[in-house]
Design goal:
It contains seven helices and 14 strands. By secondary structure, it is of the alpha/beta class. It has one domain: Metallo-beta-lactamase, Chain A. The protein has a seven-stranded mixed β-sheet. It binds zinc ion (2 copies). The site of one zinc ion has 4 residues, from loops. The site of one zinc ion (ZN) has 6 residues, from helix 2.
């Protein structure tokens, strides 16, 4: 199984519009972060986690046109802002209905923002609306895509729930501020953890770097890759040097084999 990091940035991306800080003006390509999303490939299946506003750019950049399953973590725009562009995937895949997997609270957000595309009932009359199946999933209850078993995990994004995902020894947790014991137990010394860490100051909805490292120290995964970083995290190169062994900042375009 391969994980391709399509985007590793926070909601406003890096560089941020109008910012002239050393990170936003860095020439290191690893300091250019599209909004957070990963592609998991294995057994001939492509699974995408989240389709944010950079979805189109991410598909084009990596020449991806087939997504067999879309897993959505929560209905914030930086995670669902690219859903309209999934129309192109629908065409590219010969109008085979797209398969989406999300919990109820996410689905409610999708119905609200994308009522023209994915109506609560019936089918859309919007030009080119994709055929789509939204599968309701629930944290703690495993489900199957065509080729993978996936275990959705509960985590909290402040007061709002957020869905994490486990498949094989990969655990994916983005936009988390607290992680219940039940979910922590899914992380073992064989786990490759992909974890959101926003920046260095405290934030009411996200782990900062200190909280993320504390979580890693407590749960002891084999390796950890940090995602969903803002420019306040500093330059990639400096961050990489200061992190403990087995914790790495992810960057756009990074591929890891699991
Ligand atoms: Zn986010
Ligand atoms: Zn969020």
């Amino acid at each position: 199984m391969e994980v391709l990091f399509l985007g590793t940035g926070a909601s406003l991306g890096v560089p941020m519009i109008g910012c002239t800080c050393e990170v936003c003006t860095s020439s290191d390509p690893r300091d250019k972060r599209l909004r957070t999303s990963v592609l998991i490939s294995g057994n001939g299946e492509n699974i995408l986690i989240d389709a944010g506003p950079d979805f189109r750019e991410q598909m084009l950049r990596h020449g991806i046109s087939g997504i067999d399953a879309f897993l959505i973590t929560h209905p914030h725009r930086d995670h669902i802002g690219g859903l309209d562009d999934t129309r192109a995937v629908y065409y590219a895949m010969g109008k085979k209905p797209l398969q989406f997997y999300a919990e109820d609270f996410t689905l409610e957000g999708v119905y609200k923002y994308y009522d023209y595309l994915f109506p609560r009932e019936g089918t859309s009359d919007y030009h080119g609306a994709p055929g789509a199946q939204w599968h309701r999933i629930e944290a703690g209850i495993p489900f199957r895509t065509e080729k993978h078993e996936i275990f959705p995990l509960r985590a909290m994004h402040g007061h709002m729930p957020v869905t994490g995902f486990k498949t094989g020894n990969l655990v994916y947790l983005t936009d988390v501020k607290s992680v219940p014991e039940q979910t922590r137990r899914e992380i073992t010394n064989n786990t490759v953890l992909v974890l959101g860490a926003l920046h260095r100051r405290p934030h009411h909805l996200h782990f900062n770097l200190e909280e993320a490292l504390k979580f890693v120290a407590e749960t002891k995964p084999r390796r950890t890759y940090l995602i969903h970083m803002s420019h306040w995290m500093g330059k990639h190169e400096a961050l990489e040097r200061e992190l403990p062994p087995d914790v790495f900042p992810a960057y756009d375009g990074l591929r890891i084999e699991i």
